[in-house]
Specification:
It is a single chain. This protein is 31% helix and 24% strand. The protein has 635 residues and is of the alpha/beta class. The chain folds into two domains: 401 residues, Rossmann fold (3-Layer(aba) Sandwich), CATH 3.40.50.12780; 124 residues, GMP Synthetase, Chain A, domain 3. Helix 12 links the parallel strand 18 and strand 19. Helix 3 runs parallel beside helix 10. The longest helix has 17 residues. Bound molecules: coenzyme A and adenosine monophosphate (AMP).
């Protein structure tokens, strides 16, 4: 017997225009669309062509006008600063956003201009994003854990008119002055922004450069509030850079119209949230989860969103999450499994949970990496609520596979994010683009068109978009995730098929790290792989082949490359392990066998590839790994 999930999935695939056209009635449009789905340039599809709208209007103003003016829109909770809290009603948030949009406008920002946002987890981060949306400007948020060089690459690619930042971010045990990092990035970049708006925080005061830097609050206070500027549904709302297989990140574009339609709908269907409910995504605005589920989706749906500046443990203890849930009446929490592994590690019996009443919590949603069965079991047992693993990517912007709590609650199968969400035609393909049998492993691909809210293109890189996502399987988007589908349609996501690794729910490119290591003067060749880590899921590990004649202490060189990655990519890369080896294992055609190295490190079964140049090298790799506590030595 079919259920609401199956019915919606079938309708979305058989009649996408009817399905999404009906859902789109929930958005306030300045002008309705000419076409729901425009396939005139397939395989590049566009949703709601001809329509006009404003995302900020739908996220804030409409709620003020429709009776939610005094409801909390955003609650800021900052245990890392010792307990700062603030609540913004929809009216207050709209007013601050309108004023800050006016400040951006006074600094030359207009519709279509890019604004780079480099901010910690403070309300002003959301205010900056929404102010851009209000003006029809395109924001590009860069995660605070990236170093100047990464910031510079993004500045050059997005060529922002303005940059908004804060004087500092706060990490456990240290305050990170952002302004020197930003100044360094602007020095490195070829493109120079006309202005930088700097939020001064009390922990650090940033020096402002005359003629370029502006004090945020002075500018906001002096500004005329800006109205919502109408944009095309297909105009870009934001660019979010994510790791590709090289050091050059991919600028994922999100449009205005389709994004609003899909995200608002997902709040009810995937997360079962009614307007007025409190939703908490414990992530960071620098990641896609932060864009979609800290800022846009909850506000589009009239929810209260929580902006949490802290960590699951150590700020001050592993009970922080439970406190936030209790104090703010959180109905659904969304975070990465690594956060739960961190809590479990410090408080295995969940004793901190006894201090709080979390009966308001209906559901825990996990994503960003596979939820391992142990973490799932621990969370279910301790929290006594459904724990929902769901699978998505920066590119997709919202869930591809999930147990949609607002449609039908399927039985959870540990290790699976359940079934295709309505809108997604998931197929598992072999190398020849044929669907494999149920239960067999292949590449997980989505039959085009992708639903609304997904990436329509890459910023300034259409050919890369076609090559990366559309070329491998004509008529499909490749997710670059390998996995399978079982007889009941449950999807299992196993591993990336490219050189992306997942460290504490953060997506990182091993290719990008190799590019940094290769710059060390003593390094002739290198390879970086992701190895299993109990808390972070994976951590990067580097193999270095030194130049002939280099006769220095290995420890010194390792220290230097670790420092280089931290300085070039940033602390978020969590690159702390490296070892020297005489050679790298390669195929006869010269391809480094990273997959085999990773399997040896993780004690997984592996075959010696028939194409290997010299099988004896694998023993050397094994020895080096054992020296680091991996491979056989660990089992
Ligand atoms: N600004 C500057 N530095 C940052 C940063 C930021 N915004 N975020 C992280 N870093 C630094 C950390 O301080 C750490 O530095 P260190 O090497 O000096 O210790 C490094 O980057 C790695 O950070 P992280 O991977 O977050 O590890 P952690 O040990 O600090 O914390 C967890 C581990 C599991 C507690 C943490 O990763 C976490 O809370 N994850 C939640 C999941 C999440 O947010 N996922 C995003 C997608 S949903
Ligand atoms: P990001 O773009 O940072 O969201 O990372 C996307 C990648 O994270 C996916 O391609 C997967 O490899 C992995 N991922 C995210 N969520 C899940 C999940 N629920 N199960 C398995 N892998 C996941």
């Amino acid at each position: 017997m079919s259920n609401r999930h199956e019915e919606a999935l079938a309708k979305s695939l058989n009649d996408p225009e009817g399905f999404w056209g009906e859902i789109a009635e929930d958005i306030i449009w300045t002008k309705k669309w000419d076409k729901v789905l425009d396939d005139s340039n397939a395989p590049i599809y566009r949703w709601f062509t001809g329509a006009e709208c404003n995302t900020c209007y739908n996220a804030l103003d409409r709620h003020v006008e429709e009776g939610r003016a005094d409801q909390a829109a955003l609650i800021y909770d900052s245990p890392i600063t010792g307990g700062t809290q603030a609540t913004y009603t929809y009216r207050e948030l709209r007013d601050r956003v309108a004023k800050f949009a006016g400040a951006l406008r006074a600094n030359g920002v207009e519709k279509g201009d890019r604004v780079l946002v480099y901010m910690p987890m403070v309300p002003e981060a959301a205010i900056a994003m929404l102010a851009c949306a209000r003006l029809g400007a395109v924001h590009s948020v860069v995660f605070g854990g990236f170093a100047s060089n990464e910031l510079a690459v993004r500045i050059d690619d997005a060529s922002p008119k303005a940059i908004v930042t804060a004087s500092c971010g706060i990490e456990p045990g240290r305050v990170i002055a952002y302004k020197p990092l930003l100044d360094g990035a602007i020095d490195l970049a070829k493109h120079k922004p006309a202005s930088c708006l700097v939020l001064q925080r009390e922990q650090v005061t940033a020096d402002l450069i005359e003629g370029r830097d502006v004090d945020w609050m002075e500018a906001e206070n002096a500004a005329e509030p800006a109205e919502c500027v109408t944009v095309a549904a297909t105009d870009p709302l934001y660019i979010l850079y994510t790791s590709g297989t090289t050091g050059q990140p991919k600028g994922v574009i999100r449009d205005n119209g389709g994004h609003m339609v899909a995200l608002k709908w997902s709040m009810k269907t995937v997360y079962n949230m009614e307007p007025g409910d409190v939703f908490w995504a414990a992530s960071d605005v620098g990641w896609v989860v932060g864009h979609s589920y800290i800022v846009y989706a909850p506000l589009l749906n009239g929810n209260t969103t929580i902006m949490f500046e802290g960590k699951p443990v150590g700020t001050p203890d592993p009970g922080t999450f439970w406190r936030v849930i209790q104090e703010h009446n959180v109905k659904a929490l969304f975070t990465a499994p690594t956060a739960f592994r961190a809590i479990k590690q410090q408080d295995p019996n969940a004793e901190y949970l006894d201090k709080y009443d979390i009966s308001c919590l209906d559901t825990l949603f996990l994503a960003g990496e596979r939820t391992d069965p142990d973490t799932l079991d621990w969370a279910e047992t301790k929290l006594k609520v459904p724990v929902i693993d769901h699978w998505w990517q920066t590119e997709t912007g919202w869930a591809i596979a999930a147990n949609c709590m607002g449609l039908h609650q399927y039985t959870v199968k540990p290790g699976s994010p359940t079934c295709a969400v309505p809108g997604w035609n998931i197929q598992v393909l072999d190398a020849e683009c044929n669907e494999v049998e149920r239960g067999e492993i292949g590449t997980i691909a989505i039959k085009l068109p992708l639903p609304p809210g997904t990436l329509p293109n890459l910023w300034n890189a259409e050919q890369r978009y076609r090559d990366s996502y559309l070329a491998e399987f004509p008529g499909y988007y490749t997710t670059s995730d390998a996995g399978m589908m079982d007889e009941d349609g449950y999807v299992y996501v196993m591993a990336r098929t490219d050189d992306i690794i997942n460290v504490a729910g953060h997506r990182l490119s091993t290719g990008g790290m190799e590019e940094v290591l290769a710059h060390h003067p003593d390094v002739a060749e290198c390879a970086v792989i992701g190895v299993a880590d109990e808390m972070k899921g994976q951590v990067p590990l580097g193999f270095l082949v030194l130049n002939a004649g280099v006769d220095r202490e290995e420890g010194e060189i390792v220290k230097e490359v670790v420092k280089m990655v931290r300085e070039k990519i940033g602390p978020v890369a969590a690159f702390k392990l490296a070892t020297t080896v005489k050679r790298l294992p390669k195929t006869r055609s010269g391809k480094v066998l990273r997959g085999t190295m990773q399997k040896i490190a993780d004690c997984e079964e592996h075959k010696v590839p028939a194409t290997i140049d010299d099988p004896a090298i694998l023993d050397e790799i094994d020895d080096a790994l054992q020296g680091l506590g991996f491979s056989k030595a660990r089992s």
